[in-house]
Amino acid sequence: MAKSNNRPRIKNEEQYEALVDKGYSKEKAARIANTENAGKKGGAASNYEDRTKKELYDQAKKIGIDGRSKMNKKQLISALRNN
Question: What's the whole-model pTM score?
Answer without folding.
Answer: 0.52
